[in-house]
Amino acid sequence: MTATVAYADVETGTELPAATFPVTRETLVRYAGASGDFNPIHWNEKFAREVGLPDVIAHGMFTMAEAARVVTDWAGDPAAVVEYGVRFTKPVVVPNDETGALIEVTGTVAAKLDDEARTVRVDLTARSAGQKVLGMARAVVRLA
């Protein structure tokens, strides 16, 4: 696959389609099984509270991956992302109910980096419960 978005069609300031990702305790258990990260802060409410957290929290790498989906869905190809990094600023707190939590992600093309390589930098904002959960979330994307 190659990216479906053309470099020539993108300008600085182009907004990516926003997305909201639900996260429940079941989601966290499934992610723990897939990732091998069985830290009890991600599934044991009593333990999470004992270590000073408000409740069970989502895996940082899970949160990071959900934010990246906005970029890969927009680009049309996961391999189009050539660099990606974030800083974890706040945890995604996941209550033990049917609703769980929501991760809301927006993205904007912040810069066209290299005309020859057709790369752009996308800045992402990820929020949950009204708080920014990722900082310095940036992806370099190679477009068609």
Automatic annotation (TrEMBL):
InterPro entries recorded: Fatty_acid_synthase, HotDog_dom_sf, MaoC-like_dom
Domain MaoC-like: 17-120
Organism domain of life: Bacteria
Any single Pfam family the record assigns to this protein: MaoC_dehydratas
Alphabetical GO biological process terms: fatty acid biosynthetic process
Gene Ontology molecular functions: fatty acid synthase activity
Gene3D superfamilies: Hotdog Thioesterase
Any one annotated GO CC term: fatty acid synthase complex
PANTHER family, A to Z: (3R)-HYDROXYACYL-ACP DEHYDRATASE SUBUNIT HADB, 3-HYDROXYACYL-THIOESTER DEHYDRATASE HTDX-RELATED
Family: Belongs to the enoyl-CoA hydratase/isomerase family.
Protein name (record): Dehydratase
Taxonomic lineage from the root: Bacteria, Bacillati, Actinomycetota, Actinomycetes, Kitasatosporales
